[in-house]
Structure formats: C-alpha cells, structure tokens
Design brief:
The complex is a heterodimer of chains A (887) and B (113).
Chain A: H1 4-19, H2 21-47, H3 51-62, H4 65-75, H5 78-97, H6 99-128, E1 139-147, E2 153-156, E3 158-159, H7 161-167, E4 174-179, E5 184-190, E6 193-202, H8 206-210, E7 216-217, E8 232-235, H9 237-242, E9 254-257, E10 260-267, E11 280-283, E12 297-303, H10 309-324, E13 333-339, H11 340-380, H12 382-390, H13 395-436, H14 446-478, H15 490-525, E14 536-541, H16 551-566, E15 571-577, E16 586-591, E17 599-606, H17 610-614, E18 618-621, E19 635-639, H18 640-646, E20 656-659, E21 662-670, E22 690-694, H19 700-706, E23 713-718, H20 724-735, E24 741-746, H21 747-754, H22 756-790, H23 792-800, H24 805-834, H25 850-876, H26 880-886
Parallel strand pairs in A: 6-11, 8-10, 17-22, 19-21
Antiparallel strand pairs in A: 1-2, 1-12, 1-13, 3-12, 4-12, 5-6, 5-9, 7-10, 8-11, 9-10, 14-23, 14-24, 15-23, 16-17, 16-20, 18-21, 19-22, 20-21
Helix pairs in contact in A: 1-2, 2-3, 5-13, 6-11, 6-13, 6-14, 6-22, 7-10, 11-13, 11-14, 11-15, 11-22, 12-14, 13-14, 15-22, 15-24, 15-25, 16-20, 22-24, 22-25, 23-26, 24-25
Chain B: H1 11-21, E1 25-26, H2 27-37, H3 46-58, E2 62-68, E3 74-80, H4 82-107
Classes of the chains: A alpha+beta (887), B alpha+beta (113).
Chain lengths: 887, 113
C-alpha cells in the first residue's frame, strides 16, 4: 500500500525526471560509461589486459547498454510521459483538422472561464480577501436597521451628525471614527501647479481605527476635526510622489484646496485606500446641522482587543434606542454593528451570486459542447480504437489518449479565458471597485489563478471523461462483432442525446434570465425621466472657495453666468441648481411647523430658469423666478413624491415647511425627475421627495456647508453643434476668471450611464445566453449530421420502397426537434425556479412574464429547426440505388 | 573462478539495499561489494543492476547525488533513505522466514510408511 504522501513524492520525482528529460538521458549515459570504464580499469589492473581488450571485455560482460537504458527508463515510468507527449501531438493534429469547431470551443470555454475569473475577482475583493488593514475582522460599521410598516427591513450605513455625536466616546471597547465615503473632485494648487484632486473627508482617529499609521507626519487631531478648525491635509502616497516629488520636508508645506490654503500634516503609505481612491484627506468636521442633519456619515469602528462584540453591540443599541425614539416613534429603527467587510459585502452578495451563476451556466454549456465534440470524435474513431484494442492496446492507454484531447482543448480555453479575464479586470476593476464601494482593489491574485486552474481541471474532467469512458466501453461490444452501422452503439448516441437535452435546458435558463433582464432595462429606459435630456448639458463648478461663503455672491455668480449664456446664439435657455437629475442630491431634514418629527427630503437650490431649461413639467402654482429675492417671502417648490409622501397627495400649495429653522411656503408642484441609482434603493431610477428653494433665499452658512461636498451646475439647453463647454467657460471667465469648470456632461450621456450597471448586467447574461444558444445549435447540428450518416442505408431502403425524400427528411429532422422540445420542457420549469434569484434585478416585469417565455421557446425551437434542417438536407440528395449498392 | 549462483527473482533489490546500508556507493561499487561479501559466489548481471537501482530510487528507498570517487573521478553515489532502511529490515525478516522455511522443507526426512 502506498501512502498518499509517498505517492505524491513519486509523482513529483516522475514529473521532475520527465520534464528534465535531457538531463536524465545524459546522466544515464554517463553512469553507464563510468561503469564500463571502472570495469575496464579493474581488468587492466587485475588480469593484465591491454586497454582496448579491457574495454571490449567490459562491454561484453555488461550486455546491451541500450536495453539496460530502456529498462532504467521503464523503471521510472518515462514511457507514460512519452505516451503523453505522443498523445498531445496527436490531439493537436486531430483538433487542427477541425479548426472551426476547435476555435468555437476554445472561445466559449474561454468566455466561460473569463466570466468566472472576472466575477470571482469581484467576489474575492468584496467578500473573501481580508481587507488590507491590520486585524480587519475587528473593523466594524455602525448600521441603522429600519423596519417598514409592511415588516420589511432595510439597512442604512449612513448616519447623521447626532448619531455620531451620541456614539462618539460613549461605547466601551469600541474606537469609532466618522467619515464621508464620497470623494469629491476639488480644484487644488500645489507649488504653483493647478490640479484636480479627489478629496475625501475623514474624522479624527480614522487612520488609528483602520490601523494604518501615516508614513510621514500624523493624522487629524480632535481639535482639527471641528467646524471652523484649522485647515490641514494628509496626502496620498501617489500625490506626495508626483506633486511633491517625494520630498521628506513636505510636512508644513501648503496645498491650496478649493481656494483655501491647507497645511500638509501627513503622508499615507503606498497602497493605502478607503472605499474610495482619494488623493488627499482633510478633516471631516462633523456637525449636527447642514450636512450633519441628514444621513451623510459612515461610522467605522475598531473593537478593542478583548472587547466582546455582543457587549459593544448592546451599548450601541442602547444609545440608538434613546436617540432614535426621542421623536415619539418607537421600535421601527435601531442601531447595530456589523463587520466592515460583511456590511459592504451583503449588498453585493446577491448581485455577485447572479453574475456567478450565469458565468457557471455558460461554462457548463461550453463543457457539454466540448464533451459532445469529443464524443462525436470518439464515435468516428471506433474502428481505429477497436483495431488498437485488438492489437493489445490497453484501455487505459486509449482512455489517456482521449483525455489528452480534452486537455488540449481546455488548456487552450483556459489560456484564452485567463487572457480575457485579465483584460476584463484591468478595464472593469477600477470602475467596479469605485462603483460598488469596495475597500480594496479588484485584482488577479493567487486565489483567482487557483480558481482558474481548478476550472481548467474541472473542464477536462467534465468534458473529457464521459466521452473517453464511453468510447472504451463501447469497444467491449464492438468486439462481439457488429454490423457496419452499429459500431457507434446506441448508448453513445443516448449519451449525446442526454447531453444535448441538458445543454438545451441550461440554454433555456440563460435565455429566460437574459430575456427578463433585457425587458427590465428596456422598461427602465422607456420610463419618463421627468425632464428632457436631449440637447441638455450640465457644467459643474466647485464653490468650496473662501470667496463664495456669502449667499449674495453665489447667487450673483450663478445667475449672471446663466443670463450671459441664455443671451448666446444657439442657446435656448440656461439656469443653475445645486444638483441635476441622476446626481446624488443633498439629503436634509425638515419639519412641518408645530410638528417636532424630523422628516427627510432632498433639497436643491435653484436659480430662475432651472426648471424651464431642464424641461420639468410644472403641475401646480409656479416655479421660482426673479421676484424671489433675498428679503422677499421665502418660497419652495416640491415634487409629486413629496406631496404623495408627506401630504398624503393633498393640497400642497400654501403649506409651510422648515429647513434649518428657515420657513418656506410651498408655491408650486413639479413632476418627479429620475435620480441617481443606488444600491439598496427600491428602484434604480426612482425619485424621492424633493424640495427646491431659490438660491437667493438660502443663508450663507448653509451654502458654504453644502458646497463642501456638492458642486452646483449650470444647465444649458443648446442647439446641436454648439460647443457648450466653451460657451460656459467664456461666460464664467467673464464673471470670475479664477474659477475653473469642474466637469461638463451631456445629460443624455449621464442618463445612459445611470442605467450602465443594469445594462452591463443584462448584456453579460445576454451574451452568455446567445453563446450558449449557438453552441447548443452546433451540438444539435452535429448530432443530426451523425444520424444522417448512420441512417443512410435505412433511408436508402425506405426511399427505394417508395418513401418520398420529404418524409425521409422529416424522419431525420423530427428527432432533433423532439430533443430540443424535451430540453425546453425541462428548462422552462428550471428557469422559473432559478430566475427567482434575479427577482431583485427585475423592474416592470415579473419572473412569470409570459412574453419572455413564449419568446424564449419560439427562438429556441426556431434555432433547433434550422440546426436540424441544415445537416438533414443531405438526405434530400440521397440516391437510393447508389446507397444500396454501397452496402 | 569460484562456482557462481544465479540470483533469485527479487533478491537483487534486497542485496542492493543491504550493500548500500554499509555506506553510500556508486553503481559499480555496489556490484563489487555484493560479489566480495558473497565471496564471489553471487554474480549480478551487470545490465540488470542499473534498472534495479532506478526502480529503488523511484520508490524512494534509495537516493542519489553526484560525488567524486578515488582519483578524482565523478560518479553518481547512491545511499539508503530512511524509508529504504525500513524496507531493508522488512525484507531481511522476510528472507529469514523464507530461507528458514525452505531449509525446513529441504531437511525433511523421508518418513517410513
């Protein structure tokens, strides 16, 4: 009995000698020669022979050197390796004889593997690979669990300033820090060089909490992390290297951010990142008003070593219950903690699960195809195999040869898959990690490569073992002497049929999922966005600038530029607002007078012309105009969702609301516009309760608070061909030459991007489904072609006996359609079961959408009919007399 | 020349292991050592020595490494591994049992009817 360890060691020795073959041969030859030399020396010394005579005798005594060498090789089982090499060459030749099919199989196997690699890299980054911080399992996030009236629970990761204030320092065993997880683009100047940097604000103690010390200098102190505190900044390693040349005396230097000088107090080590890739960090300066009145902070904590998680959680919950239920509501909201990676991962689990399932299905279908291809090959070679076995070839050897062919295919597929997967991760990794809020980069690492190797092995086994086993099993029966057509026994074609049915079922599942996702995207796309995106451009500007902390200056800038723009030829209208559709809007609390209950709504300040330019429908009352100046009555416009959510759909006009202790009277109602898609939102393009107020009636403190991380935009409706970016730049330069534009985007493009992830998801599944469909069609065509060959004689006989060629044609095609129908019949209930998994990604269609299933069935049968009919046309050309004479 | 005896199938492995248990040696040395120890009674066919060495090495009972012999000649030296030592003990025991049993059989007296 050989122990596994010893077996492995033997295999390793075998592999080493096999691969180091030249070394082995020369060593062997040298050893034999050494033996002969020593023997000859002894003969010279002991028996006094001459050198030549001694050498001759030595060789004579030894016997055949060559057969000794061969025996040595056998002792090492090198014959197996030689056989493998022969098989490899043979396999490559066989496959290169059908380059089209080999290419198709390589490609599909490659795509299946690439999809698996790419999705696994995401899974790895989101869920498996530990976060790149010391003891990441002790990092937690404060979560707010909300229970809706219908009993469904949702989890919010963003907390407001009061929650932060109450938890800060109040929980034993938990080191907590607040951060903002949205990086915002900021204009910066360093050493006279203008820059556009990604800035993230983090609270004091954040670097300590994640456990990464700055490479140089320090993080933020509590004194710096208060509103109006000193302006200090910590640089990323990259910015320190590129902008400051990696200078060690960078500390104390000045970096101008949004028009304000910041003192550099620290540099983070290389590779440090949070859930965003920021260039510079500044103190969060948390508040309970303005930004802090809404849920805009993420609270990250580290459990002290030895602190028990349940004890910490209980404290957090206690703080939460006294805080959240002050307003009279109870039991609907509670605070808790969750492991950091878990918290972010849980959002993605579902999405990644769907993507991974689709990737596996595609892989399964391509493996089945490889199996079908090899089965057909083996079938055509039964005579060759029979001869080899009759001549004493062992079953094992033939099995190994057939497996080698699938090894070649799967190696090709794996190589293609690895290449495609690397390209996909390089192109999609960064946007994906930014878009999905990963705390680390998406990358190809050992795990991903390990999975790839695993899949390759699986592909060989799944695609190769069955045909190989089948081929050698058939042989036993072929030996019993069978007729000319029976060499490929019935069981082989039954195996092929079973494979085909499985394949069709998998294809039906993929097609159904793809169809439902496609319908969802179409449905979302056809939804009324609530404004006119065509010909609309948004140009944003950063106003976190010391010169714009006064409401009047902000108003004048926004309105003057808008007015100048509308006066330009080719520009129909222009306006400005704090945010545009699809952007993340400012979320703030407001109250109805006399009601202490805080409520949430998106708040946007606007200039006259904002709604007109966007093309938002006014439903009631009026929109802000030039009458609404500072000092006049403060007014607001709300959207339909606001009226539905907070006013029960009743009369809105005249109702008063209070934002930040400033009262506004509702004077108009506008249609809902689509907003930024977000994970965890009920719908990707929903709209929320929103209120709009004139920029002239917002207090300066509120504006400068808001501009810390929101960039207002001008919206411009222009005729096509007008260079809007240039027009806005000119108009802005005329008013304030020092203020650069941040970003100019067409809203049509923004709208498309808003559905980007849904479209990408649908496209991936559709691509997989189409590929799988083509593969199944090829498989079916192959099967029918084989049956035509097999049944030539039968068909010839039938036609000789008076059957028409049409009925012979039908006799060949019908089994193909039957197989497809069986696959369909199995696949439809299977898909109904499986597509439940993607219910969360469907909009406007149910999982039982009849149109989709009818479409899938029709498409499948149509493709099956074509795939069966094409090879069956050979029956039509059959000449009965000729066929009968041949046999 | 002394009278020589042909080797029993499988005994070659045992003899090689035994020879190597006395110290690392190259192939030709193994051959000489076995002949010397048997007073030139056992003649090992030179051609079958190396396949046996390779087989034993493949099984992990012996290992080889390059070394230099007398008069600075390079040679491949074989030595026993711990696995081989255990194997040798097993085989010696088996051999003792076998030769004892064979001896018993051969020494049997014809019993009178």
């Amino acid at each position: 009995m050989i122990e596994p360890g010893e077996a492995l060691a033997r295999f390793w020795r075998w592999l080493r000698t096999s691969t180091g073959r030249n070394g082995f041969e020369s060593d062997l030859a040298a050893e034999m020669q050494d033996h002969l030399d020593r023997r000859a020396d002894d003969l010279v010394r002991n028996e006094g022979l001459s050198d030549d005579e001694a050498a001759r005798r030595a060789r004579l005594e030894f016997g055949s050197v060559e057969s000794a060498k061969a025996a040595c090789r056998d002792a090492r089982r090198l014959d197996l390796f030689d056989e493998f090499r022969r098989n490899l060459g043979h396999g490559v030749r066989v496959l290169s004889r059908s380059p089209g099919l080999s290419f198709a199989v390589t490609l599909t196997l490659g795509l299946g593997i690439a999809a698996n690699i790419a999705v696994f890299a995401l899974v790895d980054a989101a869920l498996l690979r530990p976060l790149p911080y010391p003891e990441p399992e002790r990092l937690v996030l404060v979560e707010r669990h909300l229970r809706a009236e219908d009993g469904t629970e949702s989890v919010a990761r963003y907390q407001n300033g009061r929650t932060w204030q109450s938890l800060s320092g109040a929980v034993d065993g938990l080191d907590l820090a607040a951060i903002s997880t949205s990086a915002s683009g900021a204009n910066a100047v360093a050493g006279g060089m203008p820059l556009y940097l990604q800035q993230q604000r983090v609270g004091s103690g954040f670097f300590r909490v994640v456990g990464v010390d700055p490479l140089l200098g320090r993080g933020f102190s509590a004194i710096e992390d208060v509103p109006g505190g000193p302006a200090v900044a910590v640089l990323s390693h990259g910015i320190w290297k590129t902008v400051f040349g990696g200078a060690l005396d960078v500390l104390g230097k000045s970096l101008q951010l949004r028009g304000e000088p910041y003192e550099v107090v620290g540099v983070m080590p290389e590779g440090f990142r949070t859930s965003v890739e920021a260039d510079v960090w500044t103190p969060l300066r948390p508040t309970t008003t303005g930004e802090g009145s809404g849920s805009n902070y993420v609270l990250v904590g580290r459990l002290h070593s030895g602190a028990s998680r349940p004890a910490v959680e209980a404290q957090v919950r206690a703080v939460g219950s006294s805080l959240l239920n002050e307003g009279g509501r109870s039991g609907t909201t509670r605070l808790g903690i969750e492991e950091l990676q878990q918290s972010y991962g849980s959002d993605l689990e579902h999405y990644l699960f769907v993507a991974w399932s689709a990737a596996w299905l595609v892989l399964l279908v391509s493996c089945i195809n490889v199996a079908g291809l090899l089965l057909a090959h083996a079938g055509r070679r039964t005579r060759e195999i029979a001869t080899r076995m009759a001549l004493g070839g062992s079953r094992g050897a033939i099995l190994r040869q057939l497996l080698t062919e699938s090894l070649v295919l799967s190696l090709l597929g794996t190589t293609a898959g690895l290449g495609l997967g690397v390209v996909a991760i390089q192109r999609l990794g960064r946007p994906a990690s930014a878009g999905l809020g990963f705390w680390q980069t998406v990358q190809i690492d050992g795990r991903v490569l390990g999975l790839c190797a695993g899949i390759a092995v699986l592909a060989v086994v799944v695609s190769g073992l069955l045909p190989a086993w089948q081929a050698t099993r058939i042989e036993l029966r072929a030996g019993q002497g069978s007729s000319s057509r029976g060499v490929l026994g019935n069981s082989a074609s039954w195996t092929r049929r079973a494979l085909l049915v499985t394949q069709v079922a998998a294809v039906v599942t993929l097609l159904s999922g793809a169809g439902l996702l496609a319908r969802s995207v179409l449905e979302l796309q056809s939804k009324d966005p609530g404004f006119e995106p065509e010909g609309l451009v948004a140009a944003s500007v950063s106003l976190q600038d010391a010169r714009y902390d006064d409401a009047e200056r902000v108003r004048r800038l926004l309105e003057t530029v808008a007015k100048r723009l509308s006066a330009q030829p080719g520009i129909a209208s222009a306006g400005a607002g704090l945010s545009v559709p699809y952007e993340r809007p400012l979320n703030m609390t407001f109250r109805f007078p006399g009601d202490p209950e805080p409520r949430l709504a998106n708040l946007t300040y606007v200039t006259p012309g904002y709604f007109e330019t966007l093309g938002v429908r006014l439903l009631q009352g009026r929109v802000p105009d030039r009458r609404d100046v500072a000092g006049a009555e403060t007014v607001a416009v709300v959207n339909q969702d606001f009226v539905r959510t907070y006013l029960g759909g009743g009369e809105a006009l005249g109702t008063r609301i209070e934002f930040e202790d400033a009262g506004y009277r509702i004077v108009g109602v506008v249609a809902d516009t689509q907003q930024r898609p977000g994970w965890g939102d009920a719908e990707p393009l929903g709209s929320r309760a929103a209120a709009f107020v004139p920029v002239s009636q917002v207090r300066g403190e509120v504006l400068s608070l808001v501009h810390r991380w929101f960039q207002p935009s001008w919206v411009v409706r222009a005729a096509s061909g007008v260079d809007v970016a240039e027009r806005v730049r000119e108009a802005l330069a005329a008013v304030d030459a020092e203020l650069p534009l941040a970003e100019v985007r067409s809203l049509h493009r923004v709208r498309n991007q808003a559905l980007g992830s849904q479209r990408m998801q649908a496209l991936l599944v559709i691509a997989g489904a189409v590929l799988a469909l083509i593969l199944a069609a090829v498989g079916l065509a192959g099967l029918i072609a084989a049956s035509v060959t097999e049944r030539r004689r039968e068909m010839g006989l039938r036609m000789a006996l008076g059957a028409t060629s049409l009925s012979a044609f039908a006799a060949v095609v019908l089994p193909g359609l039957c197989l497809a129908s069986v696959g369909l019949a199995l696949g439809l209930p299977l898909s109904l079961g499986l597509v439940r998994g993607i219910r969360a990604f469907l909009y406007g269609v149910t999982v039982f959408d009849p149109l989709t299933y009818v479409g899938v069935a029709t498409l499948l049968l149509l493709v099956a009919a074509v795939a069966s009919a094409v090879p069956a046309t050979r029956v039509l050309r059959l000449e009965p007399s000729q066929v009968l004479r041949q046999e | 020349m002394a009278k020589t005896v042909d080797l029993l199938q499988g005994t070659l492995d045992l003899l090689i292991l035994k020879a190597l248990s006395l110290g690392a040696m190259h192939g030709y040395g193994v051959l000489l050592r076995i002949q010397q120890l048997s007073d030139d009674v056992l003649q090992i066919p030179q051609g079958s020595l190396y396949p046996a060495l390779y087989r034993l090495e493949h099984r992990g009972w012996i290992q080889s490494e390059p070394g230099t012999s007398e008069n600075n000649r390079k040679a491949k030296y074989y030595s026993l591994t711990s696995l081989g030592r255990r194997q040798l003990e097993d085989e010696e025991e088996q051999w003792d049992r076998l030769s004892g049993a064979v001896g018993l059989v051969l020494r049997a007296q014809e019993t009178s009817p």
